[in-house]
Amino acid sequence: MSSEKSLPKAYYQYLHELQAVDFVLVELSLYLDTHRDDTQALAQLQQFQKRKHNLVAQFEASFGPLYQYGESQTDAKHWAWADAPWPWQV
Amino acid sequence: MWIYEKKLQYPVRVGKCDPRLARLLIEQYGGADGELSAALRYLNQRYSIPDRVIGLLTDIGTEEFAHLEMIATMVYKLTKDASPEQMKAAGLADHYVNHDRALYYHDAAGVPWTSAYIQAKGDPIADLYEDIAAEEKARATYQWIIDNTDDPDIMDALKFLREREIVHALRFREAVELLKEHREQKKVF
């Protein structure tokens, strides 16, 4: 069974913003798969990549790693990746 | 290689315990036109399809796993606090005696998932038409589930998933046109 903790409001705010930016990135990726040379779409993707990069850094500093296998910054004392909550618990 | 992101693609809010709705949602977990079928269908077709559309199959196939996780989250949250009596009243006694509240890849009627649900013909046009049909069927299924609930939180997440099926179908239609253009170009020497 899970340990469902109550999370601060900021967790949901950051997460929601990240999900919104990721939606744009997913949508543009699929579009570019069939429109490889659309420079406007490419520029938009690059713009949102920067936003994602900043958001991920802010989220991870407060709430722990978002990506596995060493893709996220690691703390020297504690392996936070394996900590709850998992996405279905929040 | 895949990298897991420790978040859902879209927020899934569930305000109440509702195992009846969970039973219906299982259709999109382990049903013929569900998210597991979709992910495995597209990722498996990549190896024999022309290079021009491998990126699309990879990206849509990967997104389907994010959708599978959203459905799992809904089912988990709708059933986690259900008593055996509530599971029984929702028609989930058969599920409960085998799996307790664990998720399992079967459809709303309890039929286990089978690879017979997905096709791989090796003919690019045939495979992409199969993919378009799969997306349209999944879109319809989401509509039938939406028609069966009045929970605004669940409806919000299901409407997101329904819209994604529409976008995927559109992209697959474009992929068909790209391959047709490519085929016609090759005939000109």
TrEMBL record, chain A:
InterPro entries found in the cross-reference section: CotJB_dom, Spore_coat_assembly_CotJB
Pfam families in the record: CotJB
Superkingdom of this protein's organism: Bacteria
Keyword set, alphabetical order: Capsid protein, Virion
Protein's name according to its UniProt entry: Spore coat protein CotJB
Source organism of this protein record: Alicyclobacillus acidoterrestris (strain ATCC 49025 / DSM 3922 / CIP 106132 / NCIMB 13137 / GD3B)
